[in-house]
Model the fold of this input.
Amino acid sequence: MKRICMFLAVSLLFSGCEKEPESASSAVGKGAPQVSVQTATASTNVILHANDAVVVRIDGKDLTRGEIIRNAKVALQLNMNKARKTKIRRREMQILERNCRAAANREIARAAVAKYVRDRNLPVPTNLIKRVTRRFESQYGAMSLKLRRRHNIKDLKYMLGKNAFRIDEMIMEMALFEVMTNDVANAANIVISDKMVADRLNLIKKANGRAAATNEQIFATATNVWKKIVSKEMTFEAAASKFSEDEYAQMGCEWGCFTLDQLEDEDALLALLPTIKTGDITPPIESDGGLAILRKDEDDNSKTYSFSRVFFRLPYFYDEETPVQARAVLHEQKCAELIKATIKDNIDKLKIEYPNGTNIVWKLTAQDLK
Done:
């Protein structure tokens, strides 16, 4: 059950399962405290300027732009503890915008979960809060290299300062979700047949066979691209633009600037690091869950290493499972389907309003990070 809760807390509770408002396009900027409505076509373009502008109203409770940004900053600060700080401001903005874009959907899902628990008068045991708190610390309390220990809740609250109260809300949200999950799973009569188990094991075997064949093709493609780069038939930037399959491809080929600690999982790169100089281009190596051709760029200082990369995403290989493990996974999947349906059912019972008739497309500036 713990595995279910950890998985679903991200994939279901915070997914986009909400009532869709009328189709419209919009943008958010920071400026005068007003709401400007412009009608250019049949659709309405709503531009929200003020942080007190209401984005969504759920059962009469308003969620404003300012609240969304404040909450997103909490997620930003928690995630930046362990995220690679490549181009820090760029990375911060990515996390902030991602959390802001999903904020309305998350708030609606949270309200639906709270409604389920409230309507059934389900208790939230103290020991559950303690378990969730420990999981929260494990998830966000990055290991301190200096102290050789994980940050606890007290450390995290100190780090967040005036936004510390949000941690208590997040822990309660996780606890409520687990209460609902346990209640739905216990009430369900889920039967996993032997055929379902056999079918799953067979699918894993076939999928891994296809992945192995694809793996060989990707290695061949990456090697060919590397040869073209080193022979000057193709520039590094052109190769990255054409072939890269990661988030950095949209912002050029820069991978980032790293310390040795941040490269601790990059075994292949660490092995090459003593021998490569500025401007050197590595052959394809396994890196960051894929295959990468790396170029060593000029370092910011003696303790950091800067790279650009052409990245090829490798196919996913499924772990081999025993019949007992397959049965457990199938049970979790069935529970997940029931919980997702339960959330949707409770969303349908909420009164959801978008005062400006639209979902917000968040376009933030560096000013919003302050």
About this structure: Residues 194-230 form the longest helix (37 residues).
